[in-house]
Amino acid sequence: MRFDEAYSGKVFIASQNDYDKADVVLYGMPMDWTVSFRPGSRFGPNRIREVSIGLEEYSPYLDRELTDINVFDAGDIPLPFGNPEKSLKLIKDYVSTLTKDRKLPFGLGGEHLVTLPVVEAIYDKTKDLTLIHIDAHTDLRDDYEGEVYSHSTPVKKICELIGPENVYSFGIRSGMKEEFIYAKTSGMHLYKYHVIEPLKQVLPTLSGKNVYVTIDIDVLDPASAPGTGTQEVGGITSNELLAAIHAIAGSKVNVVGCDLVEVSPPYDNSDQTAIAASKFVREMLLGFTK
C-alpha cells in the first residue's frame, strides 16, 4: 500500500516497488501539531528521502547493501493538519496493517508523539515488548500545559502501556525534575548523558526479547544536528549514534519495529541533519532486518 494522494514520488534509495515481497516498510508520519517550540518536523520524512540519493547502498560497517533486503517505501501517511488524535489513530491503523502482513514497520517522523500509536499497534500483536529510547529529552510528562497528547508525553504513556520496567532511555539530558523522579521511582531504566556504554551493558539482558527502537535526532549535539525543533547542548556525536545502532544490530534482541524522529529541515539550510539521518536510516534498515 502506498499513499498516492500525498506521495511526492521520492523514495528512499534502493527501495523496491513490491509491497508483498517487502521485508520492511518505510513510511512517513509528517506531524508536528503539538510541538512546544519550533515546528517543521512534518517536512522531515520527505527530506530524508530526498538526500538519501547521496548515500551508497553498501554499508562498510555491516558489510551489507540495501539490495540484500526488500524495502518498500510507502510514502507519507496523509495526516489531518492540526488534529493529533485523528492523526494518531490513522498511524495506529496503518501500522496494525503492517504487523498483520508481517512487515517490519520503520517510521520516519515527525514529532516524537508519533511513536506512541506505533508502539500501541505492535503491542496489540505481542504483549512481550521492550522500548529502547534514544533521546535528549525524557518525554515523561503527563501533559504539556494541559494537553495530554504532546511530544513531551509519549514515553510516559508507553510506560503505562507496556510497564515502566520494560522502558530503557539513553542519552537523556533534559526534562522536568518530576520526570526524573518518576524514572527513578517507577522502575524504568534511564541513563543520563551517555548512550553507547550503558546500552552495551543493557543489551545482553534483553537477549531474545521483542524490542522497539525509537531515536530522536536531538540526542545528537546541535553541532551535529542543527535541524531539529528542540536543541539541547551536550549531546553525543554522530559516530556514537552509529555505534549504538550497530550495537543493537549485533545483539540478540528481536527488533520488531523502529523509528527516527524530529528531523526539522527548515532549521538546517545545509541539510546536515537530514543527511546524517539518512545514513542512520540505512544502517538501521541493514542492521535490524535479519
Describe this structure in words.
- By secondary structure, the protein is α/β, with parallel strands linked by helices.
- It has one domain: Arginase, Chain A, CATH 3.40.800.10.
- Helix content is 31%, strand content 18%.
- It has helices spanning 44-51, 84-100, 115-125, 154-162, 177-186, 196-202, 238-249, 272-288; strands at residues 24-29, 58-59, 64-65, 71-76, 104-109, 130-134, 167-172, 189-192, 210-216, 254-261.
- The strands form 2 sheets. It has an 8-stranded parallel β-sheet with strand order 4-1-5-10-9-6-7-8, with helices on both faces. Strands 2-3 form a two-stranded antiparallel sheet.
- α4 (154-162) links the parallel β6 and β7 (167-172).
- The mean pLDDT is 95.
- It comes from Halolactibacillus halophilus.
- Pathway: Amine and polyamine biosynthesis; putrescine biosynthesis via agmatine pathway; putrescine from agmatine: step 1/1.
